[in-house]
Amino acid sequence: MKPTCSATRIFSVILRLSPATVLGGCDLVVLHPMGDVALQQRNLILFATALMLLIVIPVIALVGVFAWRYRSTNEKATYQPDWDHSTQLELIIWAAPLLIVICLGAVTWTGTHLLDPYRPIQRLSAARAIPVGTKPLEVDVVALDWKWLFIYPEYRIATVNELAAPVDRPIRFRLTSSSVMNAFYVPTLAGMIYAMPSMETRLHAVINKPGNYAGFSSNYSGAGFSGMRFRFHGLDNTGFAAWIAINKASRLSLTRANYLKLVEPSETVPVIRFASIDPTLFDAVVNQCVRPGVTCMSAMMQMDGREAAGITHRPGIGQPEPKRAQSPLTTSDAGGPPPVTPADIRQRGPSSPDESRTPKQKPL
C-alpha cells in the first residue's frame, strides 16, 4: 500500500525537524577547539553532558517501558494499588543523582580554578610544557562601537578587526571597552570574557594549530552588533613576522587624536592597520582620560587617597568625644524649689526668634 499524500508530507516535516537535519548545517566550532584552553573547556562540557545523560537516558527509557508494560490491555501486569514504599528503590532513586551532583561539583570546582581566565596557562598542551624563558604575547583589546581594536605593545602596532598570534606561544590579553559592556569570544581559542568600560579584564590562552578562525562579540551592544566580527589568524613564527611587517608598512599612527576619530560609532568596519601607537593609550582608555584636559580616574583615586590619609593624622579625629559639663535644664539648683514665675527661669537659648543669631532664609 502506497503512502497517501498527507502521510508523505507528515513524514517529510518530521524528517526536516529531526535533530540531525536541524544541526546538519551548523558548525559546532566549540567542539572543535584549536587551543589547549578551549580543548579543556570542550572536555569539561562533554564530561558534564555524559554524567547528566546517565540519569536522563534511563529515565526516558523507563517511561516508555512502564507505559508499555502497564498499558490497559496488558492483563499479565501485576496491579498493586496498596504498594507505597521500597527501601531498595529509594536508595537507587536518591543515591544515583547524589553521586552525579558530587562528581559534577568536584569537576566544576577544579575546572573553575584551572581554567580561570586571569590565571596564566601552565602548558602548551597536555603533552607539552611551556619552554623556559618563553615570553607571552601581550595584546590589549578595546571594544569600540562597533569594532575591535587590538594593540600590540611589544611590536608598537595596532589593528582594527584583525588579530594574529604565533602558534604555541602563550597569549595574555588585557581587555576594556570604550562605552558599553561587550564580550570578546574566539570559540576555537578560549572562553568568552567581558570587556567593560573603566575596567580591565584579562584572558590567557594559546593557539596550537595554524588557521583562520572567527572571532566576534557575544554580548549585544547596539545597532552595529551583528557586524562586530573579526578574524583571528594562528600563524607560525615566519608567518607572524610577515604579518607584523605588513602592519609596519602602514602609513597610519594610532595617536590619541586618531583614537578619538576611531571611537565614533561605525558599522561593518574593514581592517585598519597602524604602524605605530601611543604607548599610554590603553591605560588612558581604561581611566577614561583620552581627551585632552580630562583627569584620569587613577589620578582622582590617588587624590582621594591623599586626602583620606591627611584626615587620619588630625589629632582627635576618629576618637570618642569627651564628656562635657552640662547645665541643668532650668536653674542652677536643679534640686531646689520650682521658680515662682516663668520670668525667673534662666533660658539656655534665645527667648524669642528675634534674638536668634541663625541667618534668616533669603527670598528665592
Task: Explain how this protein is built.
Among the domains are: 67 residues; 165 residues, Immunoglobulin-like. 33% of the residues lie in helices and 19% in strands. It is built from eight helices and 15 strands. The protein is α+β, with helices and mostly antiparallel strands. The protein starts with a helix and ends in a 52-residue tail after the last helix. Helix 3 packs antiparallel against helix 4. The longest helix has 34 residues. The strands form four sheets. A six-stranded mixed β-sheet has the order 10-7-3-4-5-14. It is flat and about 90 Å long.
Kindly, what is the distance between the CA atoms of the first and last residues, rounded to a whole number of angstroms?
96 Å
Strand order in space, largest sheet:
10-7-3-4-5-14
* Morphology call: flat
Q: Work out the strand percent.
A: 15-25%
Question: What's the CATH superfamily of the domain at 133-297, by name?
Answer: Cupredoxins -  blue copper proteins
Q: Which CATH architecture of the domain at 133-297?
A: Sandwich
Helical segment count? 8
Fill in the CATH topology of the domain at 133-297.
Immunoglobulin-like
Report the mean per-residue pLDDT as an integer.
81
Give the low-confidence spans.
1-5, 17-25, 358-364
Major sheet characteristics: 6 strands, mixed
Give the ordered list of helices and strands.
HHHHEEEEEEEEEEEEHEHEEHH
**Percent range of helical residues:** 25-40%
> Structural class of the secondary elements?
alpha+beta
Q: Whole-number radius of gyration?
A: 35 Å
Number of strand segments = 15
- CATH class of the domain at 133-297, please? Mainly Beta
